[in-house]
Design brief:
It contains eleven helices and no strands. By secondary structure, it is an all-alpha fold.
């Protein structure tokens, strides 16, 4: 256990070292998308408020001729595109930090865009399936406990829903390294998903503990930044998401480097015994 936590700490240190060493490459990919996304969100809120202020009815809000509604939709799509592209650029730069450049990472990320979308949708549906499967024992257990203890089913299921959330998170955890493998090795989606499953399955407990601690730290930092007015969400996007993205790759490389193939058995050389020659 001590060795496992030492390995997790080493991954955190390696992540910070990687960011500090290549900060000139990471900083534009972290700062620019965060600022653009922040501006788009503010613009979306203003456009939504303007659309509701000028509408005469709900039907007029959804009308094709309503310019405000079109602007809101365009801003939302741009915001989603920027956030997805920023994650892709960060993943590409992390996996190619030695030879990659900022413009090259943006160019290459566009080639992985639709593959990344398909992979994300697949992981989302797997996570959703894990949530549904997790709710089945939750409701059965809630009904049983309510019958035995005489409590309210809804009250018990509210506490037990964390089991369903854990099932959903564990289902998605098996594919956490798939985007890095796909972009690093430029392989198809299915192959990257399979490789990610094999890695997580070989280091399951260590992976669960690593990402659980990462989630706890991210939640604590996000909760703390809520008290920072106006720019708290910007700071959160500037720190939490980039660090988590880079840390996942560093942790992935630590797992793959620790898996050493067994050495092939060496066959001792055969000793030839020379027979003494008999005199003629």
């Amino acid at each position: 256990m001590k060795t496992a936590f030492h390995g997790l700490y080493a991954s955190y240190v390696a992540t910070c070292a990687l960011i500090m060493k290549h900060w000139k490459k990471f900083l534009p990919l972290i700062l620019l998308p965060a600022v653009i996304s922040f501006i788009l969100k503010i613009s979306t809120r203003l456009a939504i408020g303007n659309a509701f202020a000028n509408m005469s009815s709900f039907a007029s809000l959804l009308s094709i001729k309503n310019l405000n509604a079109d602007v809101v939709l365009l801003l939302i799509l741009c915001s989603v595109f920027i956030e997805i592209l920023s994650v892709l650029c960060l993943i590409y730069m992390t996996t190619h930090h030695e030879e990659g450049t900022v413009f090259h990472s943006i160019e290459e990320s566009l080639t992985y865009f639709w593959r990344f979308i398909l992979m994300s949708l697949f992981i989302f549906f797997v996570s959703l399936l894990g949530l549904v499967v997790g709710y089945i024992p939750v409701w059965l257990l809630s009904i049983a406990l309510a019958f035995i203890m005489g409590s309210d089913v809804a009250q018990l299921s509210g506490w037990l829903q964390y089991i369903a959330n854990a099932c959903s998170a564990l289902a998605a955890l098996f594919f956490v390294f798939a985007p890095y493998i796909m972009i690093e090795k430029n392989i198809p989606i299915i192959e990257a998903l399979r490789k990610s499953i094999r890695i997580v399955r070989s280091h399951f407990l260590r992976t669960v503990v690593a990402f659980f601690l990462l989630s706890v730290l991210g939640l604590l930092l996000s909760y703390t930044l809520l008290y920072v007015p106006r720019i708290g969400s910007l700071i959160s996007a500037f720190i939490i998401i980039p660090f988590s993205t880079i840390y996942a790759y560093v942790f992935y490389t630590s797992l793959t480097s620790s898996t050493v193939a067994p050495a092939e058995p060496t066959v001792p050389p055969t000793q030839t015994t020379s027979t003494p020659s008999t005199p003629a």
